[in-house]
Specification:
Blueprint (H helix, E strand, L loop, with lengths): L5 E3 L2 H6 L19 H11 L5 E6 L2 E2 L3 E3 L5 E2 L1 H12 L3 E6 L5 H6 L5 E2 L13 E2 L4 E10 L14 E5 L3 H7 L3 H4 L4 E5 L2 H10 L4 E5 H10 L4 E3 L5 E5 L2 E2 L4 H16 L2 H8 L14
Parallel strand pairs: 1-6, 2-6, 2-7, 10-11, 10-12
Antiparallel strand pairs: 3-4, 4-5, 8-15, 9-12, 9-13, 9-14
Helix pairs in contact: 2-9, 3-9
Length: about 280
């Protein structure tokens, strides 16, 4: 059995990898209704020609992917990906990417999945997804002393979110009428920057994923509050290049097996202080 090696690559190095990976998944995907451990084993055999799982992720997206105090890349999704790779005898490369370049990197095979708190709703036509594994919501966060009690209090205010994010899609889609009451919807490259601007008072609210809000409030319990009514409810899944159904099924089956044997719960508990809740896990 080949020993798994963890490789961490910088963005520039990641870009140089384009076209270097050939993925051969020739056997049909395992049945999701079968025993997860059996399905995971058969799917691993189907994907035996895959040597390296290259995970594209945003390295400023805690608690799913971020830079730890020791300078290493850490996060719930990265731990899940490492375990999936281990069980399928794959090497793994963690490839921090510019979020707005993710589609090009995936289509060029520079990365072979996007695994980083990736909302699937509204993106189904552009990717092949694993089955959803985590419940998510898009929410609004304001400063605790702002006096803003609900979304109507943001009329004439500035709201910021990440570029090409699910929150932005909601504000431009189902919640466009609400967004029309804001003075402006700004975008920024990452949520750390967004919350820095909220703290500085240059914006009045951040629209973001529930997990991001939970992380920021756990880290700053007296600084931020989440408005009660979510903008939308959705799910996280692992995104693959369109048509890569075998690999998506292999990851799905392996995650199910990990839930059954308690590994998922252990990983969630590791990040509980960051606001991760095992009760939001939906892939069983």
């Amino acid at each position: 059995m080949k020993k798994k090696v963890l490789k961490v690559v910088a963005t520039a190095a990641t870009l140089a990898l384009a076209g270097a990976l050939a993925v051969g998944c020739s056997s049909p995907a395992g049945s999701s209704s079968a025993s997860s451990s059996t399905s995971a084993a058969s799917s691993a055999a189907a994907d035996s020609t895959l040597e390296t799982l290259i995970v594209g992720f945003d390295n400023s997206y805690p608690p799913y992917g971020f830079i730890g105090d020791d300078g290493d890349y850490v996060g719930l999704d990265l731990d899940l990906a490492k375990e999936v790779a281990e069980r399928n005898n794959w090497e793994i490369e963690l490839a921090p990417i510019d979020w707005d370049a993710k589609d090009a990197l995936l289509n060029q095979d520079t990365v072979n999945c996007i695994w980083n708190g990736f909302t699937m709703e509204g993106r189904e036509d552009n990717y092949t997804f694993s089955e959803p594994y985590m419940l998510n919501e898009q929410v609004l966060v304001v400063k605790a002393d702002s006096g803003i009690q609900d979304a109507t209090g943001l009329a004439g205010k500035v709201v910021i979110t990440q570029i090409d994010s699910a929150a932005l899609a909601v504000l431009e889609g189902d919640q466009a009428e609400l967004a029309g009451t804001f003075a402006k919807v700004d975008t920024v490259s990452d949520y750390n920057n967004a919350f820095m601007q909220l703290e500085a008072g240059t914006v009045d609210a951040v629209a973001c994923d529930l997990s991001i809000a939970a992380y920021q409030m756990a880290a700053n319990p007296d600084k931020y509050v989440q408005l009660a009514e979510p903008l939308s409810s959705e799910h996280y899944a692992v995104g693959f290049k369109k048509g890569n159904t075998d690999m998506a099924q292999t990851v799905t089956d392996t995650l199910k097996a990990m839930y059954e044997d308690g590994t998922v719960e252990q990983i969630c508990q590791k990040y509980a202080e960051y606001g991760v809740d095992i009760n939001n896990w939906v892939l069983k």
